[in-house]
């Protein structure tokens, strides 16, 4: 790749449904990435349930091949872009996910495993949907189920890269939807999940998007990612951009995050 650092996590308007239709396209990101000298990996949402049931999902009807074709064509001109997908994990769809990985692992440069929902239609990363989920489940149960599902994803070894490991705290935190006293929201719990990634040799995302949510910190926190890197964890950095303006502002922060994490890693190998 042309540049030193890579933002591994950006979404486009055409291929991710949670973006404004006027939002950024591949070429918009490419323009800015070139100016600010950073490689960029497109990581649009790939969610089996939505693809099967919602015909308006951009990946319905086998459209993934068009997605790849579009990126591959751009790659002929630009040597600083990666094709990727943020693939939703479902515990009851492991076989299909494995088949998918078999078919597409080689076609794509990068696949990140991710969890936004475990009951289709109730993503915990949308505030309004999370409130609906809270109507039917206790907050403690939601947090516990999130971590359980993450553990299953990590131990399934379907994915080599794991996105935003504690994104459950996007809205559930002291600044927003407050956890009750019986909830385990400890940093230790996130650390254990990260250690499970290390054990399975998976790369952990340092997702800096948390700063724009009430939680006000990356996923996972700086302290946790620092500890995980000290313990030998492999990592990648993502801005999780859904708009161009945001992406541009994050570029220096993505680079700083790599410099910081690399310095910890290099310091280890000096010893
Ligand atoms: Zn995500
Ligand atoms: Zn994302």
Could you walk me through the main structural features you see in this protein, from its secondary elements to its overall organization?
The structure is a single chain. By secondary structure, the protein is α/β, with parallel strands linked by helices. It has one domain (6-270): Metal-dependent hydrolases (TIM Barrel). Helices cover 43% and strands 14% of the residues. It has nine helices and seven strands, in the order E-H-E-H-H-E-H-E-H-H-E-H-E-H-E-H. It has helices spanning 26-36, 48-53, 64-75, 94-104, 127-136, 139-156, 187-199, 222-230, 244-270; strands at 6-10, 39-46, 81-88, 110-114, 161-162, 203-207, 234-238. The chain has a seven-stranded parallel β-sheet with strand order 1-2-3-4-5-6-7. Helix 4 (94-104) links the parallel strand 3 and strand 4 (110-114). The protein is globular, with a radius of gyration of 18 Å. The mean pLDDT is 96. Residues 86, 114, 116, 163-164 line the site of one zinc ion.
Percentage of residues in helical conformation: 40-55%
Structural class: alpha/beta
Rg, Å, rounded: 18 Å
- The CATH topology turns out to be TIM Barrel
What is the CATH homologous superfamily assignment? Metal-dependent hydrolases
The topology string of helices and strands comes to EHEHHEHEHHEHEHEH
The first-level CATH class is given as: Alpha Beta
Main beta-sheet annotation: 7 strands, parallel
What's the shape?
globular
Poorly predicted parts: none
How far do the termini sit from each other?
30 Å
**What are the bound molecules?**
zinc ion
Query: How many domain regions?
Result: 1
